[in-house]
Amino acid sequence: MYRQLREEKVFKDPVHNYVHVQDEIIWSLINTSEFQRLRRIRQLGTSYLTFHGAEHSRFSHSLGVYEITRRIISQFERANYADWPREEGMVALCAALLHDLGHGPFSHSVEQAFQMHHEDWTCRILLGDTEVRSVLRRMGDDFPDKVAGVIRKDYKQPIVVNLVSSPLDADRMDYLLRDAYFTGVNYGTIDMDRILRMLRPYKGRIVVKDSGMHAVEDYLMSRYQMYWQIYFHPVTRSSEIILRQIFKRAKELYEQGHHFKFLPEPLPSLFNRTMTVQDYLQLDEALVQTAFMQWRKETDELLGELCSRFIDRKLYKYVEMDSLDIETIEEIRAAFNKAGLNPEYDLEIDFPTDLPYDVFRPDGEGREKQILLLDRQERLREISEVSDIVRSISGLQRGKFHLYFPDDKVRIIIDELPHEIAEIFVEQH
Amino acid sequence: MYRQLREEKVFKDPVHNYVHVQDEIIWSLINTSEFQRLRRIRQLGTSYLTFHGAEHSRFSHSLGVYEITRRIISQFERANYADWPREEGMVALCAALLHDLGHGPFSHSVEQAFQMHHEDWTCRILLGDTEVRSVLRRMGDDFPDKVAGVIRKDYKQPIVVNLVSSPLDADRMDYLLRDAYFTGVNYGTIDMDRILRMLRPYKGRIVVKDSGMHAVEDYLMSRYQMYWQIYFHPVTRSSEIILRQIFKRAKELYEQGHHFKFLPEPLPSLFNRTMTVQDYLQLDEALVQTAFMQWRKETDELLGELCSRFIDRKLYKYVEMDSLDIETIEEIRAAFNKAGLNPEYDLEIDFPTDLPYDVFRPDGEGREKQILLLDRQERLREISEVSDIVRSISGLQRGKFHLYFPDDKVRIIIDELPHEIAEIFVEQH
Amino acid sequence: MYRQLREEKVFKDPVHNYVHVQDEIIWSLINTSEFQRLRRIRQLGTSYLTFHGAEHSRFSHSLGVYEITRRIISQFERANYADWPREEGMVALCAALLHDLGHGPFSHSVEQAFQMHHEDWTCRILLGDTEVRSVLRRMGDDFPDKVAGVIRKDYKQPIVVNLVSSPLDADRMDYLLRDAYFTGVNYGTIDMDRILRMLRPYKGRIVVKDSGMHAVEDYLMSRYQMYWQIYFHPVTRSSEIILRQIFKRAKELYEQGHHFKFLPEPLPSLFNRTMTVQDYLQLDEALVQTAFMQWRKETDELLGELCSRFIDRKLYKYVEMDSLDIETIEEIRAAFNKAGLNPEYDLEIDFPTDLPYDVFRPDGEGREKQILLLDRQERLREISEVSDIVRSISGLQRGKFHLYFPDDKVRIIIDELPHEIAEIFVEQH
Amino acid sequence: MYRQLREEKVFKDPVHNYVHVQDEIIWSLINTSEFQRLRRIRQLGTSYLTFHGAEHSRFSHSLGVYEITRRIISQFERANYADWPREEGMVALCAALLHDLGHGPFSHSVEQAFQMHHEDWTCRILLGDTEVRSVLRRMGDDFPDKVAGVIRKDYKQPIVVNLVSSPLDADRMDYLLRDAYFTGVNYGTIDMDRILRMLRPYKGRIVVKDSGMHAVEDYLMSRYQMYWQIYFHPVTRSSEIILRQIFKRAKELYEQGHHFKFLPEPLPSLFNRTMTVQDYLQLDEALVQTAFMQWRKETDELLGELCSRFIDRKLYKYVEMDSLDIETIEEIRAAFNKAGLNPEYDLEIDFPTDLPYDVFRPDGEGREKQILLLDRQERLREISEVSDIVRSISGLQRGKFHLYFPDDKVRIIIDELPHEIAEIFVEQH
């Protein structure tokens, strides 16, 4: 049963000034333990090791996504747009608020190490025996599943899915603005107010009035810069690599029957893949960091070293290479092996375009990934047809190979490496 | 031995735009494990439970204090002020950078629970067997002790002590700006550039050119507002109370010989007061949060409940009272007792002026706590002599009693309380 | 007849981001020649000679006041407050937009020189044969008079008067924010969003919910600082003095029958006090500045000198005096006279508290000048009863005497002045 | 003779916070009547008719350019770069401060109407009988000519010319930031601090350290957006067209011997091309606006109408066309003629790429217009070689035809136009 709060509640937010909560359901959702857990998951994972301001949590981001969605919907309602299904407002707001509920600690690294997907966990939490689900059910027995449908992108009303997840959605707008604010860079200063005013519900999706084209151009440029300056920053990548290696090593040890001095719940269930929703909800970044602190004292030297690297920020160094073929990689690995290094851990190759972030590429995929402009004649055009600047960046396939390695260790054996290999690792100085 | 970096290094900072590092010593200090630990200590303790943006760490704040100090000194040097002892620059910079090194997790609450002082720990780290000390010793064997002297406020050059710790120091300027930025309030927008330009080294202390009076007025008003809006916010106070109660309960249990399922190093040494510097450096907020997560499963119900409250943010409610006498308190305690509540834990009285934060009060203390204005005739005057606005706020003794209590529990027994007691706890609704 | 615009129009505004126009009447009013004239009147008169960014016009300020009023009303309507008379919205919006319509060039100085009042002119324009009036009449024959009633403060609905003109009105909020933005100072950063959310229509006036007290405190401190830092800045005062002297001299010459080489319409009607509304509407700052440029070539040396001073920014210097009695003034005047200076023009005494700006003083005047807080028990309390900080500043009667004089001229005759007089003018160096 | 000021002076600036003046020469230059005149010339001409905040003057911009140059030089000096000729600092600072001295009112339009060039006037003022010249001569008899040499780009030290005028110079950085600030758009938020830190004097020119590439990319994108969003805004173009037509008509009338009721000095000398430096210095925007106000009453109807349009902002409407050939233009002109309109004034064709603003195009011109990146191996590379994003925008030749016309007049005769012509002018509705 839907109820408005007697009096609107607000959260002070540095990005949107105030986040306004008007519905009792939203207020209750925010106060569930599952949503509060997002306070203990950083929005940008290990980026705080590169940009010390980037300590902000998924809790703030989720509130921000909710707030932007609220503003969009309230504008749709004020303008009385025919194509907006008014009764779907609450589903959209809940999905916006809860879309990141399933994120675990340092998501990207952990997901890679344990082959999990945060969207799945979001749905499991929405539909499991949780406080969130029982709050959602106040709106009707099928309401949790409706919200999960939006997350799964199979909800019957495609416009709601499109509102919550599209190349110009509240999620992306909030993270650009928020990540720029907390890192302190100024790439993310998009004119959100203008974009919001230009959005139109139109035949089952959200499109942009064509006079908003320049604001969208600017938004896409911001995204581009944020990806290459912040999200793909090599120092951040280096810390993610260490993180992944720690998990890889810990899992190996666990599978080898190593007796951990420190392995509180729910870590065992993570390692042996028996996690329940209740287990998962106990995972947070405090636990992961504490494990790393304690694992420095484990008998396994490699695990200890990796944990120290992460905790004390003694990350791997990197060299950038314009190109890199498989043979060269094999040669390096062989040379490392010969010199007593362990190429499984002492060498990582990274090519940042294959990361789980999506740089906008209009031709790459289906229409739901496109930004469409609506003109006065009610014609729809994909933005890169109209905008030179979008067209010019939309094919860009930047990206270079980065080799990551423990500088301290490599320096010791550098003379034992073949000259042409050694050169690669010296170039940086 | 002092060396400049071949090339200046910078940290991107949302508050000061860039933090500039020019000296090899500063760079090395930042990279010690003791300084990196500050990344795991929040600047504002539990304030993030009130202002979700306030996740920033003491690491960023320490860099900020260093940066402001660097700018002040570089200006003193450019202007060639006779009263500034140029050779003390590096001591001042190191003390500025390291002044918070001894802060533990949720400092204020933990310090109260275990009677510790973070300044002492800062000195112990500076002088103990640490990376920081060995970096400092590159400047000379007595250099660590010089820096510790500035922290202890007994350094031979009082102007250095005054620069690092005074009512208008880099520490205060950074935290006002930074805490305002991350919480998102706009009280903290002081005109730092103007204040910096007005500072003058003068006869062993830092004074302010009198034409800077208005900027100082504005700074003091910002401080005033920040204390009452942010630092003394009742919701934050409530979370600090829970925190203190958790530690109090855990210590009680420990002393009673309770067998903790989860009590990794260095927690035992915290409880039995045998902490070494090495133990202390393992304390961080990740560990404390993880302990709270795990303690929810301890057999002691009270500890579990308190931990759940903190983790799930089910804090104590509060009522504000203009006055409160000891008899009333005793009556409430008795009534609580009678109704089956535990007044030791279910009732806390707080009067926010006796907190370890200093609101500026010029007449309260010695001259080193005063802000002095220097006029063209080289006369020094204490600012409240000259400024109406400072005079008018300097005696203000705001503050009200707050009663904190578990609303859920009290509501159950409310009818068992004497009417006039019950009324106190109902008033809020 | 009221009509909404088919599509909302916006103005890009640096202070409010966007100014939204939704009504056809507002749009038409903005496009009248009388409103466009406000583009040629600076918001802060001669302040641009002190703060070079302060070039902004009354046009922008008027749009800003309209926008804030629009937001307040739209919030009143959303919340459905019983005490807000919905049908008065358009009167309030028009009065907000047009409240400064009668401002002339460099208003304060010109008003003093020619004893005019801009509120009168606003009403004359609203009710005269003007485009504005004919637009307003689309809403009904008595609509122009309704709007004028709000300006005259005798409109039948006191809440509308109170909304448009009170110590916490849209006018003041806009000018604090706007003047701070364009001068570049940071005193004016009030939390407008929070204040707006706290406003309540209540029994014929606008009051503030008591939980907004701190935001109001901060607003009053901002006002205080803006008045003393910006509006009363001695350099700005100096330029206003020159301006007033130019008009005084030109009027004297006109009255003496001097033949001006340059005196286009409507200047003669200004001098002989026969201005019609049509004349008045031709007055703008471009004309005044052009007159000053041309008058430098008039045969009257004094007028020429004063105009050059204004144009080339060779303003009068000033000395500040804690006290000044009439006898001293007379002595200075006599000494000036004796030394060949003209005390009518070469000496001006200024005591900035008697300026046509109102610093908030709650006890000074009637209840309509008070800020009232509304608590949960629907009690109204004047803010200084509740707030220590407001009480502490509300009696402040700062202000010092300033003597303004042409430094170049005084320096020449300084040795001819009696020693104790000469000293006054030397002190500054 | 060079002297430092006893005490640094500052200007409060919204863009750079403070502008610092340390040299007596700079202080004196700012106080000359020629420099003060820049207060009466708007930085963005008629843009204030589109963006109401854009009232800022060339005075503020000139201070800003000076300040950025001062920061660059002071950094070059601190870092002791071998390729920076220290003794040229003062020439560079003066040239930076004075580079816009020759701008007249609404420069671009007036320059087009009267075939003048502001750079010429800058040099004439520097070298003529002016206060500026006499201040500059304090540095040596040939100093004015040195400064003029930098403006003329033939100064013996090319690095000084390059510092003051290049695709990444202080002029461009200031106007992007300043115009963005005053219009209120957020395209101009470039990371100036980072760019400044990356600049290097190198073999007679200023280059950029290659790690600054992304900041430069962002700067170029900002420029791109500012040109198309602000500088080429069709409403601004429309007002410039009216302005040009007014001058064109007035000149025609003057040449036909029309007796102007209002034509004060120095307007006649403007019309008959006999302007001296002294005449030119009397030209400002106040005079131009006053002339327009007065000319509304001239007997020539066309002049009156155009002036009213400008003053009351009844600008020409426009239609955008993807392409336009000469024949179509001729047909429109003929049709207008036939319908009684005057195509000389009632029709203007505009193609914004041929405006006197330079969008960055690396291949278009010589090396001095290129931005060069310097890598660790001291290789220089033109930025578009390295940056995909710069390469992708560098060839962009956006731009569409715009037809400007008096909508009110065209609407009256629209039925008399051939159908396919009429359609062009109707399309907009």
Keyword list:
four-stranded mixed sheet; HD_domain (chains A, B, C, D); alpha+beta; Growth Hormone, Chain: A; HD domain-containing protein (chains A, B, C, D); HD/PDEase_dom (chains A, B, C, D); Hypothetical protein af1432; three-stranded antiparallel sheet; HD_assoc_2 (chains A, B, C, D); globular; homotetramer; 429 residues; dGTPase activity (chains A, B, C, D)
Written description of the protein model:
Chains A, B, C, D: This is HD domain-containing protein. Chains A, B, C, D: One of its GO terms (biological process) is dGTP catabolic process. Chains A, B, C, D: Pfam families: HD, HD_assoc_2. 4 copies of one chain form a homotetramer. Chain A has helices at residues 24-30, 33-36, 58-79, 89-98, 107-114, 118-127, 131-136, 143-152, 158-164, 170-183, 192-198, 213-231, 234-255, 267-271, 277-280, 285-295, 301-312, 326-338, 343-346, 383-386, 388-394, 407-413, 419-426; strands at residues 4-13, 17-23, 199-202, 205-209, 317-321, 348-350, 372-374, 380-382, 401-405. By secondary structure, chain A is of the alpha+beta class. Chain A has 2 domains: 4-232, Hypothetical protein af1432 (Orthogonal Bundle); 233-315, Growth Hormone, Chain: A (Up-down Bundle), CATH 1.20.1250. In chain A, the strands form 3 sheets. Chain A has a 4-stranded mixed sheet. In chain A, strands 5-9-6 form a 3-stranded antiparallel sheet. Chain A has a two-stranded antiparallel sheet with strand order 1-2. The longest helix of chain A is centred in the first third of the chain and has 22 residues, at 58-79. The interface between C and D is large, with 42 and 43 residues.
